[in-house]
Amino acid sequence: MASKNKKRKQRRPKRTFTPEFRADVATLCQSGDESIAKVSEQLDLTESAVRGWVAKADCLRAFAL
Question: Rounded to two decimals, what is the model's pTM?
Fold first, then answer.
């Protein structure tokens, strides 16, 4: 029953980001200079959010071609 004594990690409040910000972050990751993990750490974002933004940017770019 030790799990009852463990403190739960506080959830981060939900944040919203503009489409322009998301596109800029995706472009930064796609430039190849920095990894997704590094970019997300530097900007205090979750890796899963950044990966989703990069994937969406890839789809949009492929659709535009």
Answer: 0.76
